[in-house]
Design brief:
The chain is built from four helices and five strands; from the N terminus they run βααββααββ. The chain is α+β, with helices and mostly antiparallel strands. The protein has a single domain, classed as Heat Shock Protein 90 (2-Layer Sandwich).
Length: 143
């Protein structure tokens, strides 16, 4: 089964729980394992929070979601100024800071992460996550 949706949201903090809830419901409907849902939702939260924090002078941003049997693909698109992800990832974050760990978290939570500037000048964060957890290897008793 495939689920695809796109939402245009106001660039404010109240939009983040809304899109997070939409994504969670779609993934639960498809019976995705809870641990995988939590990782995808947290990655989306970080991507949207970055837009709200850094592109707030713009009216709206867009979230595109495509879920099939194997993979969830998400793009978060905004009109902000963008940033260099390599430079941002190198900036040390203090363990005591409440901010500055979004990119590290996103990279740890998803299978693929990409930052691009579209031809129209908009900035896009795209990530993918496999929906099936890898089976654990069972050790066989040689007896």
């Amino acid at each position: 089964m495939n689920i695809d949706f796109s939402v245009r949201l106001p660039t404010d903090a109240h939009s983040v729980p809304l899109v997070r809830g939409l994504l969670r419901q779609a993934l639960e409907h498809l019976a995705v394992p809870q641990a995988v849902i939590d990782e995808i939702v947290l990655a989306l939260t970080e991507a949207c929070a970055n837009v709200v924090d850094h592109a707030a002078e713009h009216d709206a941003y867009q979230v595109d979601v495509s879920i099939d049997d194997d993979t969830c693909r998400i793009s978060v698109v905004d009109d902000g100024e963008g940033f260099d992800p390599a430079t941002a990832a190198d900036a040390p974050a203090s363990p005591l800071d409440d901010r500055g760990r979004g990119l590290v978290l996103m990279r740890a939570l998803v299978d693929q992460l990409q930052f691009v500037q579209d031809d129209d000048g908009r900035h896009r964060v795209t990530f993918e996550k496999r929906l099936v957890t890898q089976p654990h290897l069972r050790l066989l008793d040689p007896r």
